[in-house]
């Protein structure tokens, strides 16, 4: 029996490891997290077909452009002009159609010009050796000016009658019930009815879904096309080989310049399609159409698993990345924050997507263990032995990584604590227990730490606040230790001091206790008492590091830590008096 179960267990383990190693795994987790947050924030309005279709439609343009951008990035190049291409192609379409041009002619002309533009960009990058980042920044500005001149600085609208059936099929909205006929005839085939539904325990009344945007169909059509192009064609193999190692690919007979020029043309074509699709959906174009779109697309692409350095990517991941960004903004709106935090959240996702992809290329559970869990285990087993024997093996970069992960862990603990009353309230509502409902409502409404409250925005603001506070504490401790060391005649190497400070702040997750007490409005004495305990533990850790790693005498170590406390106190009093 055990002989049979061992291979099965091994297969399950191997399959799980394979899933976790896929570049889409992290964005899939983020997508599930966004769905759960949407349910927690406002399940009644979130769990409707109208809302979910709205999110998917909003992500459609980002995803469609993202497929092309992902292909180009896999080949090792960038295109930051896609937002301007989106705007000017939609603008050109609006001007031509409103001027009496045929929609079919408009579509063909716009797509042709877009492809020629993309090929020109590729030619400049490959044949003149110009960096694609610089070239596309220049064309971004050029097209933005041309777009403004094309529209005359004013919005241009087109009516539904002017759009026509073909352009409408590219991005228009179809009402339900919808009668399906044989193309170019009046022969009826069948009718698609409006959908009426209700989720028990979520919706108090019957929900009606009666409109369907065509962009949703195209986002999946392009997904199939680009996935097949990347993984099932010779061209896709050449794209991946070009981005993986452009020097070695030339020896195989592949012309990397042609591959890149083709990718630039594909990006421009699919972006033009998205622009015309957006025109069909909205029916108007303004001078600001497409502004900021490039960074959102790149964020979705990198979130979805496309490497900034090229050579690897995922089209399914691009769609999931676009959905994560769309769901984040949707949850903000349902939470009553509207556009106030949308730029902040989008900016954070860009930082996470682009910054962490660069920093954590090759990131794995083993690397996380090397950075955080193993050092933490050594500290828990004995700080003295850790600083005396194992801390010398750690670089300043590894120590800073440990500190950064500690901030994330602390934020996660506080986030769980701030949402716990809401979970208790939801359980009470499910069990029809008034006591649990009241408990959850009371404590959820009470939570507030400066500008962080018990919602998704609060978690983001908490992370920012905690990061800034810890960064400030670390820098002040670094300065205090270095100054004290120079006064005591024991000035240490800066990297060694970074190691001591970073691992000395290992008790940082304990800071979650006073933060939660403060957030839920417990008495001040209790909050400061818990904070004092945490600071004492941190001081003891710093002392161990100074004694066993930097080899200060216990007296000098205590004086140095005391100087650090004084520095922290002075800065805290100064900021506290000005912020209150």
Q: What does this protein look like?
A:
The termini are far apart. A hairpin with a 2-residue loop joins strand 9 (448-449) and strand 10. 73% of the residues lie in helices and 5% in strands. The longest helix is centred in the last third of the chain and has 35 residues, at 396-430. The model is unreliable at 1-5 and 15-21 (pLDDT under 50). The strands form five sheets. It has a two-stranded antiparallel sheet. Strands 2-7 form a two-stranded antiparallel ribbon. The protein has helices at residues 2-21, 25-46, 49-74, 82-98, 103-127, 132-151, 160-171, 215-231, 234-244, 246-249, 256-282, 293-303, 315-334, 342-359, 365-381, 383-390, 396-430, 434-446, 456-487, 494-504, 512-519, 524-548, 554-579; strands spanning 156-157, 173-175, 178-181, 188-192, 195-197, 207-209, 211-213, 284-285, 448-449, 452-453. The protein has 23 helices and ten strands. The protein has 580 residues and is mainly alpha-helical. Helix 19 packs across helix 23.
């Amino acid at each position: 029996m055990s002989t049979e179960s061992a291979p099965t267990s091994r297969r399950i383990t191997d399959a799980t490891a394979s899933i976790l190693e896929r570049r889409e795994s992290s964005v899939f987790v983020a997508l599930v997290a966004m769905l759960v947050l949407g349910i927690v924030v406002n399940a009644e309005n979130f769990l409707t077909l109208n809302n979910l279709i709205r999110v998917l439609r909003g992500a459609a343009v980002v995803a469609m452009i993202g497929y092309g951008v992902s292909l180009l990035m896999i080949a090792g190049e960038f295109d930051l002009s896609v937002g301007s291409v989106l705007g000017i192609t939609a603008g050109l379409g609006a001007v031509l159609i409103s001027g009496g041009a045929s929609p079919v002619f408009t579509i063909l002309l716009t797509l042709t010009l877009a492809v020629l533009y993309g090929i020109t960009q590729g030619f400049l990058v490959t044949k003149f050796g110009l960096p694609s980042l610089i070239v596309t920044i220049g064309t971004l500005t050029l097209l933005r000016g041309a777009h403004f001149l094309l529209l005359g600085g004013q919005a241009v609208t087109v009516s539904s009658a002017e759009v026509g059936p073909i352009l409408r099929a590219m991005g228009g909205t179809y009402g339900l019930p919808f009668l399906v006929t044989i193309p170019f005839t009046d022969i009826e085939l069948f009718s698609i009815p409006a959908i009426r539904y209700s989720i028990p325990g979520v919706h108090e009344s019957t929900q009606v879904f009666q409109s369907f945007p065509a962009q949703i169909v195209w986002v999946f059509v392009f997904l199939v096309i680009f996935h097949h192009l990347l993984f099932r064609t010779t061209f896709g193999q050449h794209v991946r080989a070009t981005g993986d190692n452009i020097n070695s690919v030339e020896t195989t007979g592949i012309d990397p310049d042609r591959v890149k020029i083709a990718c630039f043309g594909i990006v421009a074509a699919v972006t033009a399609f998205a622009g015309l699709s957006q025109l069909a959906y909205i029916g108007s174009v303004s001078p600001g159409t497409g502004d900021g779109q490039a960074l959102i697309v790149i964020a979705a692409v990198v979130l979805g698993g496309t490497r900034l350095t090229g050579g690897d990517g995922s089209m399914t991941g691009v769609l999931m990345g676009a959905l994560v960004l769309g769901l984040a903004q949707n949850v903000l709106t349902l939470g009553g924050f509207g556009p106030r935090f949308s730029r902040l959240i989008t900016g954070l996702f860009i930082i996470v997507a682009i910054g962490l992809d660069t920093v954590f290329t090759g990131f794995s559970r083993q690397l996380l263990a090397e950075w955080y869990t193993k050092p933490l285990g050594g500290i828990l087993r004995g700080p003295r032995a850790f600083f005396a024997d194992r801390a010398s093996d750690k670089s300043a970069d590894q120590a800073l990584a440990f500190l950064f992960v500690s901030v994330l862990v602390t934020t996660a603990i506080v986030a769980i604590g701030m949402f716990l009353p809401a979970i208790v309230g939801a359980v009470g509502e499910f069990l029809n227990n008034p006591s649990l409902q009241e408990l959850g409502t009371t404590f959820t409404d009470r939570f507030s730490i400066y500008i962080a409250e018990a919602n998704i925005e609060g978690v983001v603001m908490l992370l920012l606040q905690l990061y800034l506070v810890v960064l400030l504490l670390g820098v002040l401790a670094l300065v205090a230790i270095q100054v004290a060391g120079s006064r005591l005649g024991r000035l240490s190497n800066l990297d060694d001091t970074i190691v001591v400070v970073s691992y000395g702040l290992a008790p940082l997750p304990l800071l979650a206790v006073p933060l939660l007490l403060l957030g839920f409005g417990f008495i001040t004495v209790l909050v400061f008492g818990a904070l004092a305990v945490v600071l004492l533990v941190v001081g003891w850790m710093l002392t161990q590091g100074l004694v066993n790693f930097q080899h200060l005498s216990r007296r000098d170590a205590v004086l140095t830590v005391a100087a650090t406390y004084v520095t922290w106190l002075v800065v805290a009093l100064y900021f506290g008096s000005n912020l209150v």
